[in-house]
User: Fold these one by one.
Assistant:
Number 1:
Amino acid sequence: MAVRVRLFAALREAAGTDVVEMAPMPLAELLAALRARFGEPFCTRLEAASVLVDGDPAPRGAAIDLPDGAEVALLPPVSGGARRPAAP
């Protein structure tokens, strides 16, 4: 098996794919490998992204080992929708 990395929105666009399979490794190493693989603008967008491991938020500095079968989701910040103009 492998670690499944799911990419959303701007990260998906920057990488050109929505799913990447990676070998099990610590989260910090996985993020570094993704940066090296996809370059800019992926790297810039990743800096502001939320990271979830198996559905739970993962603090950036946390030492998390990713075992076989783990799923990492990378979500860019959600921007607010456009406001409707006030009725005259």
Number 2:
Amino acid sequence: MSRAYSRTAIPALLLVAALAGSLAAERLARAAEKPAAPVPTAPSLPSLPAGATPLPPALAARMQDLRRAAEEYRGLRFQREVPAVALGGRALRKVTAQEFAEELPPERMRSLAAALKAFGFVPEDLDVGRYYPELVASQQAAFYDPDRKYLAVVELGAWGREAGRGPAGGKNQRQGLDKALGPDLARRTEEAVLVHELTHALDDQSFDLNRLGKTLPLADGGAALLGLIEGDATVTMIDYMMQTRVEELPAFGDTLGSLMRDPGALASLSPDMPGSKEMAAAPAWFRDTLLFSYFQGFAFCLDVRRQGGQKLLDYAFAHDPPRSSEQLLHPEKWYGKRDDPMAIAWPDLGAELPGYEKTADGDLGEEGIAILLRQDLKDRDQAATAAAGWGGDRFAVYQKGARRLLLWITDWDTETDAAEFQAAAARLGPDWQATRSAPNRVVVIRAQGGELGGPECAAVEPKLAAAKAEKPANRDIDLQALGIPHKKPAAT
């Protein structure tokens, strides 16, 4: 599991802030505290980051109750202790830089930057390698490290102030939370974030999060994994906030759906929340993908729990995680009538593109395509319609001096879906070309630094049109074998 860009807690705070106002009447009083069950000590301490310090005594004592709450609402039990430490701002920046260096080393970061700029997701002059870690650091309140098996509290907030210590900015964070939510809910929210991270530790001990695979950017399958991981922790966090299982609140899905329609507006909803200004100012791809893993992951896990309870959610972690952002957006395409993505084989274009270097590749998936279309067309409904019906896609970026080619194969479920996407892609700009190369296939080419209809474009288009695509097996989940009664899928 890639940790460098998934360890964000401020989006979870945004979710709490957004829901707090609309669901305030449903929020219950804090449950009576119960003693936590003893947890076996880990056989050996993990490798803790430089600059880590012990938690303040009050928070260390409270962690036992928060651990019990995570166990209760997630339905799993800790197998060993999870060391928890505090990190100041300087130590956080070092940890973030180290993890980006491990997960997105310079060559991979350059590839990511090339892809983002080829699609127009970020400005040409943006230093992605510098900006990305800084944005992630601004979004962290706490995190769990699945490689080193520890939990870190980044901003101590009230706990640090009470102990007369804490990282620079801790008081500002607390003041921001107080202003946005009020003192009592602010403290409750800080605790909920720790329940969120403890849920990651529970899932890791029960299912081994690293076994699920990589959550690399511009890989749609990675976005699905990250949505499962962050969505599960967010459901447990909201359970703790509400002191009830949220799937039992009938209006909750509608409330969430209205919030999800505009990630940009959502990021601006609570300007006093720590990190919200950085999130609101971020390019749409960074902002929307970070929020997607929490919000749409939450919606997916909530729907899964409504359909099959903890059994079905545990099955996703243990055996069969969602394969695409499409399945997060439409959960019935995972647990109901299965719709896995097509695997597109990228053709060898060496003869057609002499002197060109392939600098990036990946796939966008339904959510990535929707972000692209929302950003450029400024029409949310059209973007959602054009991205729906996605069957699979694959892109690559080729560079030769100042000449850059973005080559993109997209496959669609129906001819209507393909036509809708082609019409939307044709409006992206004069340097974009969208060709219906088969009933269900649209080939997109973007040429920068030269003529769109140059000889390279004419040479590669037939190969892109003929690229082989492997249809998925689409084996439905046997709910009966899992002991789950059949339910009609919820509307999406």
Number 3:
Amino acid sequence: MRSLCKILMAIAIALASLPASAADPMAESLFQEALALMGEGRFRDACPKLEASQRLEAKSGTMTVLASCNEQIGKIATAWAQYKEAAAIARTEGRKEHVDKATELAAALELRLGKLRIDAQTPQGGVQLTVELNGSVVPEAIFGIAFAIDPGTYTLAAMAPGKQTWSATVEIKGQLGTTTVAIPELEAEKPVAPPPPMPAPTLALPPQAPPPKPVVVDRRIPPWAWVVGAGGLVSVGVSAGFLVDQRLASSTLDDRCGGAARDRCTPGYDFAADHAREKRDFGMFLGFGIGGLGLAAASVIGIVTVGPSSTSTTSRRATITPWLGPDAMGASVELGF
């Protein structure tokens, strides 16, 4: 009930300190939103809005309400300092009644203020000491002075060049009293031991490779090349024989049947036999000729590409496959390695 009365009093002071029209509309909007949040008991949401409003437009009434808001969330030291600041602003505004109210509220909080005193010897051993409170550097001028601080748990750390860092945890309760922390003489840093020397590397000689085995080189032309070459020559010769016979059959057909047209044959002449002979001989000529040329080419390749090989050689062979068609015959060559 008493806290509610303080809030209402602070709000009344703030409202009384407002001019008829706000100089900064944004500051006024933030202030009104904060008042609504405080009426709902949402002080942690209201305080940041009041801070923003005060930064935009500093007023004793806004600062008084902000101090009351922080008091409700347990920031007693912060609220106490803000009541003091609200009184100072009210003096510049010429509002004596507001000065008295803010001063009265600040005096009431002094009965609950917890304080912290840091006793430190600086410098320590000729080096400058740095003290941090929850990560923030504490000014050296405050050492030895009890200063108001909000209730809570704090981490105090002290450090100096060449010294080991010292730290302690301090708990400040929301009640009247001073907690004193004495920072001792910092110990020198422990020398870092050099790493142990690395053992000398042991050089291992690579194993001796066995001597290479002698390689017997064989540069002889493989027998299959000679066989294939001979087969090619025979096939070419047979092809030439069929060509000669085909020419003879063509000549007889031209004499007996009237030249190129072959439409007037001598009576009693067997045109079909010589015509079939002509076609067969031409097909045999082509078949044996192409087969012979292929065999000859394979033989040349075998002779030209022969190279050195070890005593362990891979067998090579040539396979000749004859073929016979309705009007011609020939042969195909397959080389195996």
Number 4:
Amino acid sequence: MPLQLSIVTPRAEALAIECQEVIIPGSTGELDLMPGHLPLITTIRPGVLTVSTGGGRRHFAVASGYAEIDDDRVSVLTEACLTAKQVDAAQARSDLESAEQAMASTGPVDPSFDENARAAAWARARIDVSERR
């Protein structure tokens, strides 16, 4: 039995698909999910979410959020989800440079450091997906 994957952003459902495998960028590492996986709720970090279907692999840049796995259903709630075609790679590189400069100028004890680190991670996710076209 295949997995039923749903990716939802605050604006809309970004993807609803049947698949054989989903690799999610979990907060503590990648989670490789296949049919029969034990129920789980986890946070996700900005990164690349990979979906395997009979037709191959598809990659999506996802922002922070949550994932729930239950009865061969995978629900991903994320701030944003983009395909490679939707990514502006030049803008992502510029965003990454700005975030890294901000992190370097503030240091890890500054309250804005975490926000800049998330912005850098989101930019890296977009760059990674754009390079997998």
